[in-house]
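Work Package 4 report. The design task specified in the project plan requires that, given a folded chain encoded as structure tokens, an amino acid be chosen for each position. We show below one input record used in the internal validation round.
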């Protein structure tokens, strides 16, 4: 079973690999068009929008691939669409109060609504494709989105857009790729199949799946807020340019996480839900070891060659981005390492431990902002401290997961 899961992860990662190559080829061009401060403003908007995007589907994107009934999958997809619309408007409205960028209030509202809804629809389309067992097509969806984002961001930058070009490229790449992939690849039974079960409304689905979506939404929001706190902390300590360098480095280094970690999570949610309890536990343990070795090797390699790649690929305005590579690598390496544990917690219906992990992680990052300011620490030292603590929390979550599972306390 483990070898089958690894093959499926490889299939799902294939599109992400193409996305990696597309993004890697684009960075020398993007950094010639946009300045670090542009990237700082862009990232502040995207990280803020991610707080609402993370809850826009009620985490039904994790449930839909595990369903076996087409009619039920269609009903859940409709509920997800309704929630995307609601959360997008809420996020846009709150941005007027909590987000300070060089935009009018109306434009800020519209951009946040579009950011949240575009990502939500893209994620929903991906979950529908996975419901039909089409991991390779999901990978293709990721590759198409990356290519569209690159083409649009470069085009808009060349014709004179500042950081708004980055945002618009991000938004429309999600919308266009979702539409094209759904039109071409998604089996139409998700739309046309006659109802085989009684119709369920928005509140009915929320009530039925409460034990799954509620802790997962809280966990996802905490995770998004935690990432937002990181860039706000770097911005507060080092300014918009440092925030841009941090965000750019994080975007580069998160590629292996998306390539392997996210693909592993999607496959595991499907496979573990169809397995016996004992089999699921053994697979999670073995895959944790495998991903741990893989993650260590990948991020060690990145750190060895990052200086050379940054020197030949980025312009002089981006000097300083290399200082963020090691601390962010520590943080993201463990994000891959704990994927099997998180998947096991979701499948067995006890995601509350992951939620607790995110709550502690978020609280510590708030605390370290104040500590860094009080003791005059640099933004690099702030990222180091938070990354090391995150690594310890990941290890603790893994140990707790396997202890509870091995003790049959689920």
């Amino acid at each position: 079973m483990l070898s089958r899961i690894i093959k499926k992860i490889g299939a799902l990662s294939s599109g992400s690999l193409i996305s990696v190559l597309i993004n890697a080829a684009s960075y020398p061009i993007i950094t010639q068009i946009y300045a670090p401060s542009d990237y700082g403003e862009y990232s502040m908007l995207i990280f803020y929008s991610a707080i609402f995007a993370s809850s826009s589907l009620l985490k039904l994107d994790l449930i839909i691939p595990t369903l076996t009934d087409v009619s039920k999958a269609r009903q859940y997809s409709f509920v997800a669409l309704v929630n995307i619309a609601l959360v997008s408007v809420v996020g846009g409205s709150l941005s007027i109060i909590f987000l300070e960028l060089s935009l009018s209030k109306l434009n800020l509202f519209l951009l946040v609504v579009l950011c949240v809804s575009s990502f939500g629809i893209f994620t929903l389309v991906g979950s529908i494709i996975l419901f039909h067992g089409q991991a390779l097509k999901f990978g293709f969806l990721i590759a198409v989105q990356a290519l569209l984002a690159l083409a649009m961001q470069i085009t808009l930058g060349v014709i004179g857009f500042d950081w708004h070009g980055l945002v618009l490229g991000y938004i429309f790449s999600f919308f266009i790729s979702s539409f094209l992939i759904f039109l071409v690849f998604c089996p139409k039974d998700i739309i046309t199949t006659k109802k085989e079960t009684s119709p369920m409304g928005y509140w009915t689905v929320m009530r039925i799946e409460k034990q799954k979506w509620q802790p997962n939404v809280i966990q996802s929001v905490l995770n998004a807020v935690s990432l937002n706190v990181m860039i706000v902390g770097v911005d507060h300590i080092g300014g918009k340019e440092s925030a841009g360098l941090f965000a750019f480095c994080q975007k580069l280094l998160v590629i292996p996480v998306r390539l392997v970690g996210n693909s592993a999570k999607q496959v595991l949610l499907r496979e573990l839900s169809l397995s016996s309890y004992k089999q699921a536990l053994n697979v999670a343990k073995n895959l944790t070891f495998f991903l741990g070795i893989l993650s260590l090797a990948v991020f060690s390699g990145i750190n060895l060659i990052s200086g050379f790649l940054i020197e030949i690929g980025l312009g002089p305005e981006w000097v300083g981005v290399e200082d963020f590579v090691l601390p962010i690598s520590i943080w993201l390496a463990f994000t891959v390492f704990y994927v099997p544990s998180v998947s096991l917690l979701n499948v067995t219906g006890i995601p509350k431990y992951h939620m607790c992990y995110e709550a502690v992680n978020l609280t510590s990052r708030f605390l370290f902002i104040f500590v860094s300011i009080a003791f005059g620490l640099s933004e690099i030292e702030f990222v180091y401290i938070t990354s090391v603590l995150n690594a310890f929390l990941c290890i603790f979550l893994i140990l707790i997961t396997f202890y509870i599972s091995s003790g049959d306390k689920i």
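The CA atoms of residues 155 and 161 lie 9 Å apart. Validation will be extended to a larger panel in the next phase.
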